[in-house]
Amino acid sequence: MNLINFSKANCRSCYKCIRICPVKAIKFKDDQAEIVEDRCIACGQCLIECPQNARYIKSDVLKVKEAIENKKVIATIAPSFAGAFDMTDEGQIVTALKTLGFDIVEETAVGARIVTAEYNNILTDWKYNNVITTCCPSANYLIERYFPSLTKYMLPVVSPMLAHGKVLKHIYGMESFVVFLGPCTAKKYEAIDFQHDGIIDAVVTFEEFALWLKEENIDIKSLESQKFDRRSVAIGRKYPVKNGVISGLMPWCTKNGFEPITVDGIEDCVKIMKEIENGDIKNVCVEVNICRGSCSGGPGMPDGQDNYFKCQSKVKEYMKKSGGDTVCENVDLSKIDFANTFLDKSIAEKKVSDDEIRKILKSMGKYEERYELNCGVCGYDTCREKAIAIYNGMAETNMCLNYMRNKAESLTNVIFGNSPNIIIILDEDLNIIEFNPAAEKAFKIESEYIKNKPISIILGNNELIEALSSKEDIFSQKASYKEYDLITLQNIIHLEKQGIILLIMSDSTEEEKNKKELKMVKENTLNAAQEVIDKQMRVVQEIASLLGETTAETKVILTKLKKIAEGEEN
């Protein structure tokens, strides 16, 4: 379905998403995060926490716009809207929706009232020693996929969204187009569940709704107020806040000796499920909310709506208002089926042997237990959990920060320590940070005695200091240091982002000495050749005078010989 995921362009392998994910439903391949939907509980927390804004959420807004053109379009809006938008009166949200083209606007709280009634009817004949509410789809997915033994405790009733959708379809016909607006990304999955397909035609988060209003230049606060087409009393409006669901079950809990417990936040939801599964707690009626503060803390709140407590306060104020309970007016609820079935949707993990785990751990440089830091940077609580994830194709070896750091440091140290070149790393004040063995040998000083000290202590060359102080990079510059009997070709690289200067010197002392010696040999050879020429000239002249012959021709030949010798030098 791929309703929510991560953008490949923006994902930067920071692993924050997997750290926040309570069920580790995020797979990494080639450093790219990918949500595995069969494992996902659709809580949306990974998308909220993503620092690179790499999130992708499939939008139904275009589908709604198309429906507005030729269908009766009905909005069911979650009561948490009161905390999501800046308004002077809650009825302004009705005007905004009808301005966009919606024909009917009702509160999802109507469905919430129905759900409370259904809960109490079912609990009359309840035979289990625990009860779990089922209004939060993410909590339902958590139980079905990771605690399937607890499905028997789940109240088999649809959510307020689906309950209201069923009522709306009953009133206006199945051909009508019902749109849910709320703060929950999981509702996008709940709407297309095979059990309830066709009840909710589209799901628009408050964030998407806010963007739509902005596109249409609609300012909610400036609009006139209108009444909802169907309203609900406070009991239905309580659902978006903590204790909102269980408040309607208090009389039953008191009568039957069940302890009412409200849990919100992913971590606490997981904890209480484990406790119920292990039998540590019994006779409890648990309201489970994956989001902190229930629905009003949902991931689909408008971008920039981070004033959590203000939002909560506004929702609580709204739920105190009563617009009249018309939920049953002209509707025969007995003809509508509000039942729901929760199934075992657990994932069968491949069994991994201890030998396989040890093999994977060794591939990450964890040869012994003491190397298992269990730091959690990769997103997994322990190195063994990470190894199992690798075995199941959910993680990669290079996700281990300590392993990659050691690997990088090892390679760096090998290169730095064994390079024949002199490598000196300086800070912006020209103090020595690093000093490799080749530098120690060349300048006859150990690194421990020169680190964090000015380079001028060993290299007082004014030209070098000037070059290092400049912001310009220099390559293959010849420099001589007579005090060290050293001639180098040096490169100066300014790494401004890192705040360091890299000085790399190639020792060319021997090469320069060899050039000098070769030049001397050539000069000595030429001098010897000149002496031979001069000597031969004298001999030839004596012979020529005796023979009465001119020496001009001989001189020309010997001169050519000299030029040939000089040409070899050039």
The average pLDDT is 86
Quote the distance from N terminus to C terminus. Answer: 77 Å
Uncertain segments are: none
Q: Which structural class best describes the helix and strand composition?
A: alpha/beta
Strand order of the largest sheet: 13-12-16-15-14
Q: If you compute it from the alpha carbons, what radius of gyration comes out, rounded to the nearest whole angstrom?
A: 41 Å
Q: What helical percentage do the residues reach?
A: 40-55%
Count of strand segments: 16
Give the CA-based shape: elongated
Biggest sheet features: 5 strands, antiparallel
Structural domain count: 4
Strand content: 5-15%
Please report the number of helical segments.
21
Gist of the model:
With 570 residues, the protein is an alpha/beta fold. It has 21 helices and 16 strands. The strands form five sheets. The chain has a five-stranded antiparallel sheet. Strands 6-5-8-9 form a four-stranded parallel sheet, sandwiched between helices.
Q: Which key features would you list for this structure?
A:
five-stranded antiparallel β-sheet, 21 helices, Beta-Lactamase, 570 residues, 41% helix, alpha/beta, 4 domains, four-stranded parallel β-sheet
Structure description:
This protein is of the alpha/beta class and 570 residues long. It has 4 domains: 271 residues, no CATH class; 65 residues, no CATH class; 86 residues, Beta-Lactamase (2-Layer Sandwich); 45 residues. 41% of the residues lie in helices and 15% in strands. The protein has 21 helices and 16 strands. The strands form 5 sheets. The protein has a 5-stranded antiparallel beta sheet. The protein has a 4-stranded parallel beta sheet with strand order 6-5-8-9, with helices on both faces. A 3-stranded parallel beta sheet has the order 7-11-10. Strand 15 and strand 16 form a beta hairpin. Helix 6 crosses helix 8, helix 15 crosses helix 16 and helix 20 runs antiparallel to helix 21. The longest helix has 39 residues. It is elongated, with a radius of gyration of 41 Å. The mean pLDDT is 86.
